[in-house]
Amino acid sequence: MSKMLSIIVISFFSHTINAQQPYNTLLGSYNGVKIYSNGSISYASNDYNNYNGTNTGMKWQCVEFVNRYYLIVNNKNIRIAGTNAVDYYSTASQRSMYNYANNSSVSPAVGDILCFGGGLGHVAIIREVGSNYVRITQQNGTNTTSDLNFTLTMSVSNGNYNISATNLSSSLYIQGWLKNSQVVQTGLAKISQGVAIYPSQVIVGNNFQSIFTLQETTGSPVTYAAILCAIVKGTSHAVDMEVKNNITIPANGSYQYSSTQQWRLTDPIGTYQAVARWKDSNGSWYDFTTTGNGINNKSFSVATNQIVLGLNPSSELDFGNVEVGQSKTLTFKVTNQSISTANLTLSPASPTSPFTLINNISITLTPGSEHIYSIKFTPQSSQSYNQIWYLTHNATNWSSPWPIQLKGNGTSSQLRAITISGQSIISNYGINIQVSPNDKNGNGNGTTGFIRYYYDGQPVTLTATPVAWEFYGFEKWLKNGSYYSNQRSISITVNGDTEYTAVYNSYVTHHKLNVRSSNPNSGVEILVYPNDVNGNSNGLTEFSRIYSHNTTINLIAPLTTAGKYFTKWLKSGLIHSVNPNINFSLSEDYYLTAVYENSTAIDYGSTIDLDYSLFQNYPNPFNPTTTISYSIPRTEFVTLKVFDMLGREVATLVNEEKLPGNYEEKFDGTNFPSGVYLYRMQAGNYAQTKKLLLLK
What we know:
It is a single chain. The chain is 4% helix and 50% strand. The chain is mainly beta. It is flat.
């Protein structure tokens, strides 16, 4: 009775320990990584966990634990948003991991991720590997303390490892396991009898055989996903012999590979190598290593019993331009790529032709040999020449007689003139015309009109470079006064004296800046940067300057002149600034007046009836630009910056020392998204922040 009571008590206690725990219950930890209960397998909290700012997934799913485990233990973020547990195996490479299929010859190991298929799948961390079992740590497996150390059965057969998911769920199966680093098998079997090819010289269209023998050397059976004999040419893969799949070599045993294949007519002749290779469970191929006198890179040749010629170039010799009375020689090569003798005859079209054969007309080529034909072109007049010569032969890969096209141009020794000029509104800004090639005297091209001399038929390139003044851009080329091309660079063939003109016109909007003093007779020299386009210095009386659109202008008025003192700038009669030094972007015509009055000199280091102020931007809301105004009563270092609602600085409008005065700054929101932004002004101990609204 007491024994029965004891059994009942133990059973009850065990049931309490392994009962499914409520959501968010801490079940324990493995390698310092905590495991929580999800309450039930089907529960989705829609609450995501963050570890040190990294999203590890939804609490407390299996993938959240695996992601967090690798983040803590391996310092590696393997999470891919939007994927389920069933996707881990197929997306291994995207997680910078390597997958090995269940029943693979690569053993699972501690720290690997075990991947389950079926439904949404399941993932766990392998914590122990035995001879016939693996133990895993998981989250949302049973939602009991068993998740800390759950046992699955494993079988090993012919060197392959197979894990069963039955202990956890009958609806799941094992896809495989993911490793943090690649496992490369070096090959447990080695080549004991080297790769052989029969016959040693393969003839195109005939059968040939590849053979090699493998010897298992470690005392344990080994299974390969596949083995084959690969035929390669240099570093390029050529053809494959038969693939033998799922080959198992017993302990200390051997296996002989043999495959017979016909060399295809489409595969080129030449020297090849036969290499024995094996494939792992990931589909990667490796070369076998050797033992004893084994050779794993057998060289052999492929030939043909037909006569095969190689021609280089195959159909044309172009001599280009050759001056009358001069000569130019070109060559072409013939190669006998067969195992038989080739006979060739090259027949000129005419003995009086400008093309002449320098060496033998008829030759005999032994197998593997070559011959170089040399042909000379000597034009007798200024014209184009075209002829076809014929190569008669006994090869099978080219028709006979085979045509060889010969062509060339005879050019006159008479020099022709090309006159080049630049036409623009502001002529004193030189236009540099690039000419290629330069004239025979080696003179460089100039910035004004010039002449170059070339022979008839000679190709010449003219390139008009941008004029050194931003108002004007290239428009077109004229040839002898008539339109020729709108391309900046033109290629021509010289044929008679010709004049080419590069035409430039204005494409840039520009504005007029008028500047004067309220008492010009006293002589006020106002500094302007940049100066006017003609380079003249600004004068003592009213003057005008022309600048392109959006040019930044800086005006500096002297503080005193002839007993009078600067008080303000007027723009079109209205107060623009009390600062003698002003900067603005020229977007319209400006009429500015520097005002001088009989008054006490102003101390610009003290208050000018101003206060520290940051005004609301206008317009607000805005799109895309708005104006921000502010004032300071004394000289201060001022910063005006724009921030987004997260406090990140997005623009700096002012970051410099400013004299007393009222100021305006533009903020352009073209490249920013709609929303509320903050702008903050700092001047000495004064600081103010306001909001602005960008609506697109």
